[in-house]
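Q: Fold this one first, please.
A: Sequence and structure below.
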Amino acid sequence: MTDTSFVALACGLIIGLGAIGACIGIAIMGGKYLEASARQPELMNTLQTKMFLLAGLIDAAFLIGVGIAMLFAFASPFKAMVVGA
């Protein structure tokens, strides 16, 4: 395997595992929101605001991982180290 194939494999793992983690996190959070709003319907608006805030933070963590993977895929910051060695 070449260095390029390792970079492609790493990018795939970063994006894939990040997507799985974000999906699981949002699914658990959505389930807990439905549970909490069923128990106390008067707090539904407050809980919904907090749920959307957390959903944005979970997606932001995933998108940061995608950005790092794209940096490795297209900018190749380690290529200079490999070529210089």
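Q: Good. Now the second chain.
A: Here it is, same layout.
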Amino acid sequence: MKFLQQMSVIFAIYLISVLVSNLLPVAFPGSVIGMILLFLLLLSGILKPRQVDEAGDFLVKNMAFLFVPTVVGIVEYIPVLMDNLLPFLVIIVVTTVLTFAAAAWTVTAVIRLQQKRGEGQK
């Protein structure tokens, strides 16, 4: 019963986020709004991690199954993908490098910040 309640909370947040997305004058994915809303609820303490932990673990463990419909949908567009293979590969490589660089910069900045705070506490 606890699992069902947790999934209900997650789906309720998603439903609200889709409604908000439909009200916005610009196209913005409801799933992104939902993640932001869930983050803000957890950050504010309105929603406790224990209220969604089991359902969240279940969704993360079974995430691969959630991508199957998307992959099947992409198969329909293989001719379009093959016609634009070089631009897609360039985009994939460039964004991967930028993501790695941003992650490395963020980790470095956080480590320096933690070291600076640690020195100030001594």
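Q: Anything worth noting on the second one?
A: Residues 1-66 form one domain.
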